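R.M. (postdoc): so does anyone remember the format we settled on? I'll just put the structure tokens first.
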């Protein structure tokens, strides 16, 4: 019997089943793609680290002649890769990069090869690139090494053509947050052009170190390294901590995709449920005939569900195939930078679950709908308080009737999907707009990342100034667009087994403080948020910091962002007064320099152009290029990348709202045709019939706005606060009043546009034909 029914259904209702299969395919592809993309993105960092022999710590002494051979012999050291920063031109464009030894491509941070191969360590004319660089395997780039002889700049400027032999990726060799790639020369370049690259002075190499015990061995490694070098101010960067931050970012992106998948699944369930319900309603007359012939009700339900289940199975298979193809564009956002195996990647677990669960749910839903239809007895729909109020206030008939159509179910229907869809659509759009306003505010104002200076000058390195700073400062301060200058020394102190980059803060300087206050005395410090967290310190605590003068106790007066330098971002470090700095670091130390970096930070007037000011100051000081506009904060591009996910979710919810409201309007006219025909017979005009449907659309839109706007604002602000704290940025409550007003206006206009065709049908119905049919 079931087989015969299925053959008959395929002949009679193949169009309906085809539409159902396409809807299932679209829903399945959307949900499976999002879930698989979330799983892939969340694990990208860990999968990259598993394949690349990652370094655990970066050691940054910036000391010529540092004994790296002895470091390699320290207990617990598995591998050491040294590198030096170099400047050169690539195809005529100035560039800078890191030139590592052969260890950095073999025993530590061995990259995955996305295309081609690793360079031959003996050949200077081979390079590899990261994926964002833009060059492909086989391309040729021209490297022109910068001169190092100030007397004869043209004496040492060799040029060579290098071949790109591979595209690689590891946690160390990675595109930056803006997606900009890196060119990595072969170690052979240093072997052939050592003097041209680094000059006659002893080279200043830093290193990345892989430890046998991983992150757990960093504390012992630091202690052994301090004993070996005689220095307590060595800058050690815990790379595992940086990886944890990246995991947090990719986890947020994955959670956003999972929320998208959940909402898509719920929305698809509602829309598919309506489609299955309509299909089941169409089969009710035939089912009652079969029931009269003696077919048991349970068997009737499974028989009626055979067609939708077959369509769902076909749609689920197609949807799974689409999800596999779409996986080539995942993971997205920050996770894409870390993916060790980009390209098509079918998640077998997700695909299998989807292709089994979707048809099973459709089968159960169709059967349950059929059983319910056979048992259903007509009932009285509940009245709407809003419609009753409109009636009592003497509103026009179209307004009262349209309100009842929007808010009362009527015979055999429900308004809940339409109202829920409208609320979800408005809430999703408003939440995305609110969140986007927070992101826009943060990315448009560098001070949210603690960058309160707009120009800067790098004037000293490892204890030596490049220029006479005392003579330079009055000239810079005399510029009318310069408000205040912070003469900043930076050196590295130790807090237990953690490195803390400490910056001097002049009395007039005002950094961004997220808690507490800035230091005022020589025994006070304001810590950056990530350093405070890793040390385990809060405002009011005391910390013991060790510098070249020994160990001292400091009171933590605040949590504040710090300037970014070549070896730290704005969340790592701390502020001290000049007196506190001098108490920690000995200017006459024979082993350690007084400072690691010497920076001049220039806060400009709000209307000043940093580039114009930098050019003017270059002319005034005779040091062209010394003062430069401040570079954007390192995490600004990272924050921009997560802006797109809520917008995609808002778009999907907006489509859901359109579908729910449009379906409610179309089906409402069809279900209420008897009511409309009676009203027309009693004198309702064609234009009043149109007004009924327009009112229905407007009331649904207003219901969505009334509930969706406050819900969306609250949701958008909660999500933005979480992102702001995780990034972190100085949190400012986002406001998007203009965008929300435009969203409300658009919702009303679109709802009435959706009502155009149903209202035409309501106005043009044949009243006598409808009443005779009823």
């Amino acid at each position: 019997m079931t087989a015969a029914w299925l053959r008959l259904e395929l002949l009679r209702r193949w169009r309906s089943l085809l539409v159902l299969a396409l809807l299932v395919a679209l829903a399945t592809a959307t949900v499976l793609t999002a879930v698989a993309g979330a799983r892939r993105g969340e694990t990208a960092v860990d999968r990259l680290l598993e394949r690349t022999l990652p370094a655990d710590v970066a050691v940054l002494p910036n000391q010529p002649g540092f004994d790296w051979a002895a470091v390699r012999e320290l207990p617990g050291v598995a591998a050491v890769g040294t590198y030096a920063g170099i400047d050169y031109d690539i195809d005529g464009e100035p560039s800078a990069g890191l030139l590592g030894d052969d260890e950095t491509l073999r025993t530590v941070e061995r990259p995955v090869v996305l295309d081609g191969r690793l360079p031959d360590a003996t050949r200077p004319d081979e390079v590899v690139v990261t994926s964002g660089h833009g060059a492909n395997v086989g391309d040729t780039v021209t490297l022109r090494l910068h001169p190092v002889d100030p007397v004869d700049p043209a004496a040492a400027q060799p040029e060579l053509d290098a071949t790109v032999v591979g595209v690689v990726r590891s946690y160390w060799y990675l595109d930056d947050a803006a997606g900009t790639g890196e060119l990595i020369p072969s170690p052979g370049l240093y072997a052939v052009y050592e003097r041209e690259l680094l000059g006659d002075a002893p080279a200043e190499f830093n290193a990345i170190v892989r430890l046998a015990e991983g992150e757990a061995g960093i504390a012992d490694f630091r202690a052994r390294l301090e004993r070996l070098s005689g220095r307590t101010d060595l800058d050690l960067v815990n790379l595992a901590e940086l990886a944890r931050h990246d995991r947090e970012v990719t986890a947020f992106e994955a959670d956003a995709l999972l929320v998208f998948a959940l909402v898509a699944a719920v929305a698809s369930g509602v829309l598919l449920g309506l489609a299955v319900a309509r299909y089941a309603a169409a089969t009710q007359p035939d089912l009652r005939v079969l029931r009269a012939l003696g077919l048991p009700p349970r068997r009737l339900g499974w028989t009626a569900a055979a067609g939708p289940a077959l369509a769902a199975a076909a749609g689920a298979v197609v949807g799974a195939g689409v999800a596999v193809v779409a996986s080539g564009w995942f993971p997205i956002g920050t996770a894409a930078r870390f993916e060790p195996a980009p390209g098509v990647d079918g998640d077998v677990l997700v695909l299998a679950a989807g292709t089994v669960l979707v048809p099973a749910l459709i089968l159960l839903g169709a059967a349950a709908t059929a059983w319910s239809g056979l048992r259903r007895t007509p009932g009285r729909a509940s009245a709407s308080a809003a419609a009753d109020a409109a009636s009592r206030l003497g509103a026009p008939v179209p307004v009262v009737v349209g309100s009842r159509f929007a808010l009362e179910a009527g015979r055999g229907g429900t308004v809940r999907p339409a109202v829920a869809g409208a609320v979800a659509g408005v809430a999703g759009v408003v939440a995305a707009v609110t969140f986007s306003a927070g992101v826009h505010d943060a990315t448009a104002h560098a001070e949210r990342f603690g960058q309160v200076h707009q120009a800067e000058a790098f004037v000293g390195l490892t204890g030596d100034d490049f220029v006479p700073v005392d003579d330079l400062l009055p000239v810079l301060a005399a510029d009318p667009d310069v408000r205040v200058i912070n003469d900043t020394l930076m050196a590295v102190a130790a807090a237990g087994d953690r490195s803390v980059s400490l910056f001097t803060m002049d009395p007039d300087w005002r950094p961004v403080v997220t808690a507490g206050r800035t230091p005022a005395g020589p025994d006070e410090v304001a810590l950056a948020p990530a350093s405070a967290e890793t040390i385990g310190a809060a405002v009011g605590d005391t910390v013991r910091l060790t510098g070249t003068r020994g160990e001292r106790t400091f009171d933590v007066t605040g949590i504040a962002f710090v300037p970014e330098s070549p070896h730290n971002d704005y969340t790592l470090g701390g502020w001290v007064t000049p007196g506190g700095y001098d108490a920690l670091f000995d200017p006459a130390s024979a082993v350690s320099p007084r400072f690691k970096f010497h920076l001049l930070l220039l806060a400009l007037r709000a209307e000043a152009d940093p580039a114009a000011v930098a050019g003017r100051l270059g002319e005034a000081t005779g040091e062209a290029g010394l003062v430069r506009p401040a570079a954007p904060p390192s995490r600004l591009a990272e924050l921009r990348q997560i802006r797109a996910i809520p917008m995609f979710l808002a778009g999907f919810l907006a489509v859901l709202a359109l579908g729910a409201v449009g379906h409610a309007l179309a089906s409402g006219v069809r279900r209420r045709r008897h009511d409309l025909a009676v009203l027309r017979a009693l004198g309702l005009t064609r234009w009043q019939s149109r007004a009924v449907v327009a009112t229905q659309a407007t009331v649904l839109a207003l219901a969505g706005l009334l509930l969706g706007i406050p819900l969306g604002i609250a949701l958008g602000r909660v999500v933005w606060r979480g992102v702001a704290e995780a990034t972190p940025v100085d949190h400012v409550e986002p406001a998007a009043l203009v965008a929300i007003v435009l969203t409300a206006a658009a919702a009303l206009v679109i709802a009435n546009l959706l009502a155009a065709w149903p209202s035409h049908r309501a106005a043009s119905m044949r009243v006598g034909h409808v009443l005779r049919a009823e």
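R.M.: ...and that's the designed sequence above, right after the tokens. Also worth knowing: Residues 384-449+637-774 form one domain. The mean pLDDT is 85.
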